[in-house]
Amino acid sequence: MPKKATYLLGILATLIIGCFLYHQFCCAHCGNTCSEKDKTAIRSTDSTMLHPAYPFALKGNGIRFNAQDNFNFLKNDFKKLLPVDDSIAIGATSLKSFLENSPALLKINGFALQDEVNSSIFPNLGYARANEVKNYFVSQGIPSAKIEINGKISDDLIVQNGTLLGPITFDLVEPATEAKPETDWQAVKTQLNANPLTLYFNTGQTEILLSETDRQKIADMIRYIDHVENAKLDIVGYTDNVGNRETNIHIGQQRADFAKNYFIQNGIAPDKINSNSKGPADPLQSNTSKEGQAKNRRTVITIH
């Protein structure tokens, strides 16, 4: 056989043996690697961040600020997710400067899905989220009197892995050109205190059951203390007359403190709430019946 042909056959044999050994010893490892790459690609697709339903945007006569991110919330919750994006903090600084030199008000609109469970003290979860964002701006130095909040139900929201992305919008509202009567806050206070919020609960409960009327009344009270300087909520605990007065005063204070802590958990500033006890004083009904005693074991919330 010619020397050149022998050389070519040697090369061919080397290639065949190499392919065989590669298949035997490397293929399984390669297959695993490829599979892992595929899985990684799938995970990356799942975790790709979608744009929020409403990006953070401030637009008014003298301010224009936009950011890609916005406030985010877990489904069925009103607590904002942390950390808040740095761009939002920059926007809050710009907003504070703008509002200091403008008669405009900031209106915060919070949104919630129809199927979300509202465990807050507010009329809906969107309202509770707007209140949470309001508290953030107050912490950045913006007075609560310069902020109005509102809550709406909408199914046009972005949800990713159980998180609502950007269910918050902002409007900068200029004063109306036509003169409108200012809110008579004293009349608001008188009306609310004439029919105070009265709650019945056991101090061991994890939440207080509220009707739609109760939630709206709370929203009206919070709006009052947000706009009237030094205004606070007064929470007073009451008992029946069973037992000695000292014990009943203590039980009444426990009721008031429980309600106060519940309000704080729902985003009301601690320094905006007073809590005290009147024990068996001022009964609503006679303590001679079980029904009357039950009505007297209550917590009453008014505006101070």
From TrEMBL:
Region (Disordered): 270-304
Gene3D superfamilies for the chain: OmpA-like domain
Biased composition (Polar residues): 273-291
Domain of life: Bacteria
Membrane-spanning segments: 7-25
Protein source organism: Flavobacterium supellecticarium
Alphabetical UniProt keywords: Cell projection, Cilium, Flagellum, Membrane, Transmembrane, Transmembrane helix
PROSITE patterns reported in the protein's UniProt record: OMPA_2, PROKAR_LIPOPROTEIN
Protein name: Flagellar motor protein MotB
InterPro entries (UniProt xref): Bact_OuterMem_StrucFunc, OmpA-like, OmpA-like_sf
The keyword Magnesium appears for this protein: no
CDD domains recorded: OmpA_C-like
